């Protein structure tokens, strides 16, 4: 199966198909209506440039259990698109968080 992602040129509304292999790990950060830059070589797309951060929904994480320790804690979270990262204990399933697309790390709750 040759999976492709489709992007729309916002200037002329033409659709651009890019092979999933060229998107690679960036796919986990793609959302409907996200604005990306399509990289072209000889008028053929060869990749995309994501925005520095994206907002993703927390699909699954552990409930927050308050403990007596003073150290900063984090917990794993599964986000829409399949990305996983460490988040602060106060962030819950269903929350929207901003994620750095270069590092994949939590930035803030939105």
From TrEMBL:
Mind listing the GO molecular function terms for this protein? translation elongation factor activity
Domain Elongation factor P C-terminal positions: 54-109
Q: Where are the transmembrane segments?
A: none
Residue stretches making up the Translation elongation factor P/YeiP central domain: 1-46
Provide one Gene Ontology cellular component. Answer: cytosol
CDD domains, sorted: S1_EF-P_repeat_1 (cd04470), S1_EF-P_repeat_2 (cd05794)
- InterPro entries under this entry? Elong-fact-P_C, NA-bd_OB-fold, Transl_elong_fac_P/YeiP, Transl_elong_P/YeiP_cen
Swiss-Prot/TrEMBL GO biological process terms: peptide biosynthetic process
Protein name as it appears in the record: Elongation factor P C-terminal domain-containing protein
């Amino acid at each position: 199966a040759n999976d492709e992602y489709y992007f729309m040129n916002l200037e002329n509304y033409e659709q651009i198909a890019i092979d999933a292999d060229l998107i690679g790990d960036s796919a986990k950060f793609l959302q409907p209506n996200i604005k990306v830059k399509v990289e072209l070589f000889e008028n053929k797309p060869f990749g995309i440039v994501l925005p520095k951060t994206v907002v993703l929904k927390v699909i699954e994480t552990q409930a927050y259990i308050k403990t007596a320790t003073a150290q900063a804690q984090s917990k794993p979270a599964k986000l829409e698109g399949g990305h996983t990262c460490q988040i602060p204990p106060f962030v819950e399933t269903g929350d929207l968080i901003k994620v750095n697309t270069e590092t994949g790390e939590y930035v803030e709750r939105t």
